[in-house]
C-alpha cells in the first residue's frame, strides 16, 4: 500500500499551483496524494476557481477532497485586509481538516506557508507536518528573521523608510521593500496576523521551497547556518523546485502563440503582471506610448478592474499603429508557454516568484516592475545577485513613465547590458535543468524529504506499538 501525503494548498493561484505540481511529483515517486480543499468559492477571483477546476479534472491519480464549508466563513475580497481574512478562513476550517486527517492514513501533511496554523492540527494528531514555501529562499530567510529583528530595531518598519535592514545571509535591504503588511501599524490586525504567521513557519518539521540551490545558493546556505535563527532550531529546508507552468492543458492553443510563431527569434517583449496585477488607466497609457516609441515587437497582457474592454483605456489609434508588430491580450495568456517560445526576447514582470522561475527556466532576461507581496524583495535579488534583470525604477514613485518603458526595453533588447542580462539568464536556465537531472540538487532534496517522512512515520509507529 502506497504511503499517503496530504497536501493543504493555498487559496490563491500563486500558492495553489506549486502545491499541485508537488502533488504530481509525489505521485511520480510512488506516493498516494490527497489534496484537502477549502471551498474555492471563498476566493472571489474566478481565475482561482478555474485553476482548481482544471487541476481536479486533469489529475485523476490525485484524490481531491472538499472540506465541508465552515459556518460563517468569510470570503477573500479586495475590500478587506488580505492576510487576517485569509488566516481567519484557515482557522475556521481546522476542525474540518482534523476530521479529514482522522479518516485517512496520512504519513505526512504539507501545508501552504500562509496556512501554518494548520500545522497544529497535524501535530496534535502525531502526523509530521511540513510547510510548502512558494517563494524563494531569500524571502524565507527574511521572513523567519523578521519577528526577532523587529524587537531588536525597536522601531516600526514603516518608520525606517529606505534605511537598510541588516538580515543574516542577505545583502542590506531597504525596509520599504518589505511586505506591505509589515509596514502597517503594529497594532493593526493585518500586522499582527502577518507576524504571527511568519513566526509559525519554523515550527514545521521541514520546509519545502520552490527553488533550486544554484539559483539561491547564498540564502540556502544561510538557512542551514545556526546564526540565521539563533534562539530557535531551524527545521530542514528542501529546495525541490523549480515547479513552473500552469495546471492542465487548454482545449485549444492560444492565438497569441500562433502570432509568436510568425515572429523572428528573441524579437518580442512580453509584458505580463500576474493573476492579480492591475494598472491604472494613466499607467496603461504610459506603457502603450513607451511600447509604440521603442519600435520593438511586443505581446502585452492587460488586466484591468475598470472595464471589460481594456482597449478603451489605450491611446486613440494605438492598436492600429502597432498592429503589425504588437498584440494586446485581454486578461490572460499562457505565460510559461509564451516565455519558452523561441520568439520571446524579454519579459516585463511584476516579480512574483512563479513568474521569476518561469522566466529563469526559459532563459529570458527580465525587466522588474514589482507591485505587491514580496516582489520588491525578489526584484533586489534579480537585479543584484542573479544579474538577469534591470529595474523599472518609476514604480517607486507610483508611475513608470513612457520614456522609461521605451528606454528599458531598448536596453534589454539592443544594448551590451542587455546581452549580459541574457547571458546570465541562460546560465540560470541551465541550472534549473540540472537541478532535476540525475544527481541534481532538487532531485536529491526531494529524496531527503521523503526519507524524513518515512523516518518520522516509522518512529510514530514504533511509539504506538510500544504504548
What does this structure look like?
Its EC number is 2.4.1.-. One of its GO terms (molecular function) is glycosyltransferase activity. Keywords: Glycosyltransferase, Transferase. By secondary structure, this protein is α/β, with parallel strands linked by helices. The protein has 2 domains: 4-246 and 438-466, Glycogen Phosphorylase B (Rossmann fold, 3-Layer(aba) Sandwich), CATH 3.40.50.2000; 255-433, Glycogen Phosphorylase B (Rossmann fold). It contains 18 helices and 15 strands. Helix 1 (13-28) runs parallel beside helix 2 (46-58), helix 6 crosses helix 9 (217-223) and helix 14 crosses helix 17 (416-435). The two termini are 24 Å apart.
Secondary-structure topology with pairs:
Layout: E1 4-8, H1 13-28, E2 32-37, H2 46-58, E3 63-66, H3 82-92, H4 94-102, E4 108-112, H5 119-124, E5 129-133, H6 137-153, H7 157-160, E6 164-165, E7 173-174, H8 189-200, E8 206-209, H9 217-223, E9 237-239, H10 255-261, E10 268-272, H11 281-294, E11 297-302, H12 318-322, E12 326-330, H13 335-340, E13 344-349, H14 353-362, E14 366-368, H15 375-383, E15 389-391, H16 402-414, H17 416-435, H18 441-466
Parallel strand pairs: 1-2, 1-4, 2-3, 4-5, 5-8, 8-9, 10-11, 10-13, 11-12, 13-14, 14-15
Antiparallel strand pairs: 6-7
Amino acid at each position: 500500500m502506497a504511503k499517503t501525503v496530504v497536501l493543504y494548498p493555498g487559496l490563491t493561484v500563486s500558492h495553489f499551483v506549486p502545491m499541485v505540481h508537488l502533488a504530481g511529483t509525489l505521485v511520480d515517486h510512488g506516493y498516494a496524494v490527497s489534496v484537502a480543499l477549502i471551498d474555492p468559492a471563498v476566493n472571489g477571483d474566478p481565475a482561482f476557481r478555474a485553476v482548481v477546476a482544471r487541476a481536479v479534472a486533469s489529475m485523476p491519480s490525485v484524490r481531491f477532497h472538499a472540506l465541508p464549508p465552515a459556518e460563517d466563513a468569510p470570503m477573500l475580497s479586495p475590500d478587506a485586509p488580505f492576510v487576517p481574512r485569509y488566516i481567519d478562513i484557515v482557522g475556521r476550517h481546522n476542525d474540518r481538516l482534523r476530521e479529514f486527517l482522522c479518516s485517512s492514513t496520512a504519513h505526512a501533511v504539507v501545508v501552504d506557508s500562509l496556512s501554518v496554523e494548520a500545522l497544529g492540527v497535524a501535530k496534535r494528531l502525531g502526523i509530521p507536518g511540513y510547510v510548502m514555501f512558494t517563494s524563494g529562499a531569500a524571502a524565507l530567510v527574511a521572513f523567519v528573521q523578521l519577528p526577532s529583528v523587529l524587537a531588536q530595531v525597536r522601531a516600526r518598519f514603516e518608520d525606517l523608510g529606505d534605511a537598510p535592514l541588516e538580515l543574516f545571509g542577505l545583502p542590506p535591504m531597504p525596509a520599504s521593500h518589505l511586505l506591505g503588511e509589515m509596514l502597517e501599524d503594529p497594532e493593526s490586525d493585518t500586522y499582527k496576523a502577518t507576524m504571527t504567521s511568519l513566526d509559525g513557519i519554523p515550527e514545521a518539521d521541514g520546509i519545502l521551497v520552490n527553488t533550486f540551490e544554484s539559483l539561491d545558493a547564498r540564502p540556502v546556505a544561510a538557512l542551514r547556518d545556526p546564526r540565521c535563527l539563533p534562539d530557535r532550531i531551524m527545521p530542514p529546508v528542501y529546495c525541490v523546485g523549480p515547479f513552473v507552468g500552469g495546471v492542465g492543458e487548454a482545449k485549444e492553443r492560444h492565438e497569441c502563440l500562433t502570432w509568436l510563431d510568425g515572429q523572428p527569434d528573441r524579437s518580442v517583449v512580453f509584458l505580463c503582471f500576474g493573476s492579480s496585477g492591475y494598472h491604472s488607466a494613466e499607467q496603461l497609457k504610459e506603457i502603450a506610448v513607451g511600447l509604440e516609441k521603442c519600435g520593438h515587437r511586443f505581446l502585452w497582457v492587460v488586466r484591468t478592474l475598470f472595464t471589460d474592454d481594456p482597449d478603451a483605456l489605450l491611446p486613440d489609434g494605438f492598436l492600429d499603429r502597432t498592429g503589425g508588430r504588437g498584440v494586446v491580450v485581454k486578461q490572460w495568456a499562457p505565460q510559461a508557454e509564451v516565455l519558452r517560445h523561441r520568439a520571446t526576447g524579454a519579459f516585463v514582470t511584476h516579480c512574483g516568484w512563479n513568474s521569476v522561475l518561469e522566466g529563469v527556466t526559459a532563459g529570458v532576461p527580465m525587466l522588474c516592475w514589482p507591485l505587491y507581496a514580496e516582489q520588491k524583495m525578489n526584484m533586489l535579488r534579480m537585479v543584484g545577485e542573479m544579474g538577469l534583470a534591470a529595474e523599472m525604477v518609476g514604480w517607486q514613485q507610483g508611475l513608470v513613465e513612457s520614456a522609461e518603458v521605451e528606454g528599458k526595453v531598448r536596453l534589454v533588447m539592443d544594448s551590451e547590458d542587455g546581452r549580459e542580462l541574457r547571458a546570465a539568464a541562460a546560465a540560470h536556465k541551465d541550472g534549473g535543468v540540472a537541478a532535476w537531472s540525475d544527481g541534481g540538487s532538487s532531485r536529491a532534496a526531494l529524496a531527503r524529504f521523503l526519507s524524513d517522512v518515512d523516518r518520522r512515520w516509522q518512529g510514530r509507529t514504533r511509539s504506538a506499538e510500544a504504548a
